[in-house]
Amino acid sequence: MLRLLSCYWCFMLFLAVIGSGRGHRHEHHDDRDHRNVTYEGRSLIINGHRKILFSGSIHYPRSTPQMWPSLIAKAKEGGLDVIQTYVFWNLHEPQKGQYDFSGRNDIIRFIKEIQSQGLYVCLRIGPFIESEWTYGGLPIWLHDVAGIVFRSDNKPYKYYMQRFVTKIVNMMKSEKLYASQGGPIILSQIENEYQTIEPAFHEKGPPYVLWAAKMAVDFHTGVPWVMCKQDDAPGPVINACNGMRCGETFKGPNSPNKPSIWTEDWTSFYQVWGGKPYIRSAQDIAFHVALFIAKNGSYVNYYMYHGGTNFGRTAAAFMITGYYDQAPLDEYGLVREPKWGHLKELHAAIKLCSRPLLTGTQNVISLGQLQEAFVFEETSGVCAAFLVNNDERKAVTVLFRNISYELPRKSISILPDCKTVAFNTERVSTQYNKRSKTSNLKFDSDEKWEEYREAILNFDNTLLRAEGLLDQISAAKDASDYFWYTFRFHYNSSNAQAPLDVQSHGHILHAFVNGEYTGSAHGSHDNVSFTLRNTVHLRQGTNDGALLSVTVGLPDSGAFLERKVAGVHRVRVQDKSFTNCSWGYQVGLIGEKLQIYSNLGLNKVLWSSIRSPTRQLTWYKTTFRAPAGNDPIALNLQSMGKGEAWVNGQSIGRYWVSFKTSKGNPSQTRYHVPRGFLKPTGNLLVLLEEENGNPLGITVDTIAIRKVCGHVTNSHLPPLSSWLRHRQRGDTDIKKFGKKPTVQPSCPLGKKISKIVFASFGNPDGDCERYAVGSCHSSHSQGVVERVRIFLCLSLIS
What we know:
The chain is built from 14 helices and 42 strands. The two termini are 42 Å apart. By secondary structure, it is α+β, with helices and mostly antiparallel strands. Mean pLDDT is 91; it is low at 1-33 and 789-798. 17% of the residues lie in helices and 32% in strands. Strand 3 (44-46) and strand 4 form a beta hairpin. Strands 5-6-7-8-9-10-11-12 form an eight-stranded parallel beta barrel, surrounded by four helices. Strands 1, 20, 34, 37, 39 and 40 form a six-stranded antiparallel sheet that branches. This is Beta-galactosidase 16. It comes from Citrus sinensis (Sweet orange).
């Protein structure tokens, strides 16, 4: 009978587009809040006040300037205080001494947008960043600097590193963006996770760490510097933690005068071609954040809060084009529930504890074999407690200060007054949502497409010649993913069939003999090297071999990055080696050099109607109108193989639909087309298809949140807004507020509730996908919810 009384509401809502809604309100911090940033063992100190800060990584080049205001506003609404970003050296200095800070690279505009919305900035200058970004953010021209050894006590590397860091720091100073100048930047980072590779450099490692730290501090920016994953961060530089469980793994600051900082709390994990998404639950993230704060942590950054898109060729080796789509804000910038909402509630609960956390004395009390309480209390009696259940298998009941508390498995309850639970990491009271895709435009007719077939290169048409096989990274210098290896050989046997054996250091290889395609092979993220073995048809006499080696990004991590190689390193036909013969080379494809993906280069080649069958190395072009409305847009490339796509001359990234996961699914089928790339009509779409994909299956889709659902039980907690409202009135006893657990449905901006799909008061079963009434159900459930729908709609669109 008691179980039947423990009923809960569960209802789902379809949402319809109604046009633009509320705008985002921009706020400014009073400049006085920015004049002085220091720290002590408990926290950062801003203008004399200790701070608990929640931060989120949003990388400016992984979205567009048109998206920045909305992303930042959603981060602020989610309870963040800080936006954290890397600085991308190879974007800003693609050629030595030539800088680019335009468009998506406009870091100044990005930081000023953050400032206009009243948030702080953590600027991770690096300039090595890793970040699943090609070459770890280092410009490829560094590779050719004589005598250089990256990230070590090496004079050439230190010279160029210091030159770039100086430029960035001076730019920030000239725009008055440091907190000491009234700007939003409160933290900066030098280097990145260096300790993981430092032993490889032996005696050249520690001096480099000391040099980098001193260089940073000597800029006198007026804000602290951090080094992440660097336990011995020198002098005033703060050592910070990266990972998913810093509350358990972080050794702590290397000085009692430094605060405990978490620069990367991974909300998901990067995804590679052939891999599936990593799903990290909102509950797991919340548990480890709460534990970190309970153990005297004071700064937590979510990596990523919005991942975005690896446009163009910016993704590192084997990284997919979408980045951290499972973050609180997905690739398109849509709110992902319950992750976004649950963390928002967590932030509010912890902020309610700010005073005792920052000024009280910490005591740790055992509540059981796997249970403990972290209690923060002032002499005045102001108190907050974190009750921790580390048991991953079962819920427990603990006694704390003569009151019993039920703790779900692997969870933390936060008590802002040491009496009443305001939040539990395992109990999700916020809504869930589901992203849907609508096909708006199909390209399913031959008449909609034209093609251009890339020529298969032969030895006579090459200008670069060498005896022996060249390393692709050294020769191509990342000017293109594509690098041709061509050779000519004589075959005297009467047998027209012969084995071809090609060994490659990565990443993909397409083989042609006498202009005919003979096969492909590729490596993977975990094993980039591979061998192509095939039987090829030869003619007696002279034969032409052409091997198209393809990279999918440059490596982004590891010691001695400058020594990394790619491309063909051994070739045999029949039983004869051609490794040391004369080779002809070409960087890139003809279509790339002529930029036929843009309106300027489009007419430099002769396009024709689509021919059948399809052929490897074919360019396709069409035009399309932009879908109406404001929903994000994606190209569905399910029917394609491998290549790259451009819209109005801007690359939306590589695609590789043919590389399947272990379950036979593509790692990514939809590719984000930001609305900032589009005009109303006449948008040019060009694709380079390496394999034999069929463009007639491509669609233009819109992405939206069209369904939300929520559930609540007797054991759920009232919304944190209950505490916040009454705390503002000076009332701290939540028990007399009369608040009960509630479901609070909300819609994305510009949408309203159009339909109640399901509602049940009882013990329904299921989730946003599948749902059913249980043995306990009120037949009036749907009617009650329908009667309040008008009120809900009005409140959502006002």
